[in-house]
Amino acid sequence: MPALSADHITAISAFTPVALLFQEIFTRYPMSVYTKVEPAQLEELLKRYELGEQGSLRAIAAGITNTNYYLQTDAGQFVLTLYEHHSDDELDFILGLQQHLAGQGINCASPVTDRRGGLYSILNHRPAAIIHRVAGEVIPQPQPAHCSTTGEALAQIHLAGQNYDKCRTNPRGLDWCIATVDMLDFVLTSDDRQLINATISDYARFPTSDLPRGAIHADLFHDNVLFQAEGPGGIIDFDYACNDSFVFDIAIMLNDWGIGADGKFLDTHVDAILEGYQGIRPLLDIEHQALPLMLRAAALRFWLSRLYDKTFPLSGELTYIKSPEEFRKLLVLRSDHPAPW
Question: Is the Cβ–Cβ distance between 295 and 254 less than 8 Å?
Answer without folding.
Answer: yes
